[in-house]
């Protein structure tokens, strides 16, 4: 019998069939070619607005807790290449930082560590507190590395750059250390066809690669 879900699936299948000739033209094209193709860009932008903009913003610059997709690929945790972007679109991603307050020490220890973390990126900080907090960074090394440059394999961000997903400053970092953080990007694989994923991934990749898209 009729259900709203069955009607949705019917309309979705009809749209797929209507778009099949368009996507057929994109088959075999590289991400760079797709990102430079006006029609692929138009479709990619539409897919982005329908599926990604609610978190990353219509301009893809994100907000607190949602990454800026226009920033340099090296600043990202898991989406430097089109293939990595496609995998995250399909499978989603979960990032977890456990609460570390007990491992670091008392409130002063935590504030000192926060200032040391700020010092790694040259951000404004208290020099004396940073020196006192350096030894406490041992609690962070397993994920962020001794140099603070992070580990993309486990989703630990680079603490030496100036990209702060949850805001910067002593108070923000203290909150992260004490409370930890869990962030989830839901998988979109069931909502998008492989052809749509290919075009969307190329569009997202191109947002941070304007020079390469332009062929410079």
Can you describe this structure?
This protein has 216 residues and is mainly alpha-helical. Helix content is 53%, strand content 5%. The chain contains twelve helices and two strands; from the N terminus they run αααααβαααααβαα. It has helices at residues 4-26, 31-36, 38-51, 53-56, 82-91, 101-104, 107-120, 127-133, 141-144, 170-179, 194-207, 210-213; strands at 93-97, 181-185. A two-stranded antiparallel ribbon has the order 1-2. Helix 3 crosses helix 11 (194-207), helix 5 crosses helix 11 and helix 7 crosses helix 8. The longest helix has 23 residues, at 4-26. The chain is elongated, with a radius of gyration of 21 Å. The model has no long low-confidence stretch (mean pLDDT 90).
How many individual β-strands? 2
Mean pLDDT score: 90
Q: What count of structural domains?
A: 2
How would you classify the quaternary structure?
single chain
The CATH homologous superfamily of the largest domain is named Cytochrome c-like domain
Shape: elongated
- CATH secondary-structure class of the largest domain: Mainly Alpha
Low-pLDDT sequence parts: none
- Kindly provide the radius of gyration, computed on alpha-carbon positions and rounded to a whole number of angstroms: 21 Å
Indicate the CATH topology of the largest domain: Cytochrome Bc1 Complex, Chain D, domain 2
**Beta-strand percentage?**
under 5%
Question: What is the N-to-C succession of helices and strands?
Answer: HHHHHEHHHHHEHH
* Helix/strand structural class: mainly alpha
Q: Mind summarizing the main beta sheet?
A: 2 strands, antiparallel
Distance between the termini: 56 Å
Strand ordering within the main sheet: 1-2
Query: Helical stretch count?
Result: 12
CATH architecture of the largest domain: Orthogonal Bundle
Helix content: 40-55%
